Amino acid sequence: MSERVSALRNRETGGSVQVRDAGLRGMITLRGDLSNSKLSSVVKSLTGLKLPARNGVVQDGDTGIAWMSPDELLVMVAYDDVPEALDKIAKALSGQHHLAVNVSDARSVMLLQGTFVREVVAKLAPVDLHPDVWQPGQIIRSRLGQVAAAFWLVDDATVQVICFRSVADYAFDLLAASAKAGPVGHFARGT
Length: 191
Known about the structure:
With 191 residues, the chain is of the alpha+beta class. The chain has 4 helices and 10 strands; from the N terminus they run E-E-H-E-E-E-H-E-E-H-E-E-E-H. Strand 3 (57-60) and strand 4 form a beta hairpin. The radius of gyration is 17 Å and the shape is globular.
């Protein structure tokens, strides 16, 4: 049997902002009625967390829930726990309109850590990332360069990025180049 590896194979950079592969992560796209108590109950039983607010992310380590759209969540669990989690979702939501799909191997996760992580992402994404607008725990679905990505501030010095596995090297290289170029001081001006 072949060895399981992430798309980025543990790549990482050094410097003031470190970009690194987060490794294999269990991820389930769950679509359905987010106001349904059975849906929120099964997601809480899998993660130990309450559903996030609109555009929100709640996390405890590698476990978490990200709001992706009005009828979609990204449920993050341990990679090896995904099959069992899908079974639990199927049983809990049996007879109800929903979709639960294992997207773990279709996505890549990167972590950025350092003093100017906000600027590293801002140089690549066409969205307002000013501290008054983008707060920890708020997910943004946008672009990094030419590829779709979702990203959020875990805290003021940590950003988590998710993109398609097929563009992981491109996204990693963009983030690494942006970090290496250093800060531009945009957010330090108080604007």
